[in-house]
Amino acid sequence: MTGLVLFFGISGVIVASSIAMLFSRDFVRSVLFLLLALCSFAGLYALLDATFLALLQLFLYAGAVTVVLVFVVMLTRPKVADFSHLLQRQTIYAGVAVVALFAPIADALVRLAGTLPAAGTTAASTRVLARALMGEYAAPFEIASLVLLAALVGAIYLAREAE
Question: For the chain, what is the domain count?
Fold first, then answer.
């Protein structure tokens, strides 16, 4: 019962911070709401006893990616004259599409969740995952770090070019 309450509480924080991120008028606050959502996802992983994934979520996404986004926002200083310019006429159509697609997707997820077996995590499964991530999949992690570095250097270049 406590786990269910925690799950819905954390899920509510994720949904609320995601909506706040989308409708925030300030880009820095949007990044902070994104940080809250990403940290909440780490809480969900911790609830599932996936400690390794929770820490990975905190270090990689909540830590590194958010810092890069803050640097990009602070260095490029995006200027938006009015918040209404960000919202286009397609917003109404997008809202209708979201409402129309929510019910079938939610139904499919509920049916899928009913068929999944309950799986416990062990230290051995975490060890296997860590070895795979640091062995076989080490190159994609390094490539992702280079892409993030290139984005940061590009943001600095664009910020300096404008001055």
Answer: 1
- Cα-to-chain-centroid distance, residue 163: 32
In angstroms, rounded to a whole number, what is the distance separating the alpha carbons of residues 123 and 50? 10
Burial (Cβ within 10 Å: 0-12, 13-18, ≥19) of residue 84 = exposed
Least confident of 15-24, 58-67, 124-133: 124-133
Q: Give me 93's structure tokens.
A: 């159509």
> Which residue's structure tokens are 């416990």?
120
Mean pLDDT of 137-148: 82
Residues 6 or more apart whose Cβ sits within 8 Å of residue 40: 10, 13, 14, 17
Residue 8 domain-assigned (yes or no): yes
CB atoms within 10 A of CB 24: 17
Residue 111 in domain: no
